[in-house]
Amino acid sequence: MTMDATLSGHLQELRRGTVVVASLTVLREAGYGYSLLETLSAAGFEVEANTLYPLLRRLETQGLLTSEWNTEEARPRKFYRTTEQGDAIAAALRDEWARLDKAIGDLDHPAGTDPRSEQ
């Protein structure tokens, strides 16, 4: 296995969980799947529709999202929004992300060697 393939596999693993956090964060405001794909892409989260739509269904089954159809436009669209539980899970995941980011930073720069701490 080449280094590129190894890195690609690890990056895919790392990104997989971030899409959940990002989706729950974005969907605090109601949105439909395609607009979520565009928003995530613009923010640097490259996710394909065939990955996102099953994820949205799974999050809905878990009670983290709610959905409803908007049939007022020419093309009906299913809008998603986080539930109260979804908001709480997203906040907990973002807190854990921040904790892990700090822990990795601490490992990368042991006490007293982090140039960021000298500000």
Automatic annotation (TrEMBL):
UniProt name for this protein: Helix-turn-helix transcriptional regulator
Pfam families: PadR
Limits of the Transcription regulator PadR N-terminal domain: 24-88
Organism from which the protein derives: Actinoplanes flavus
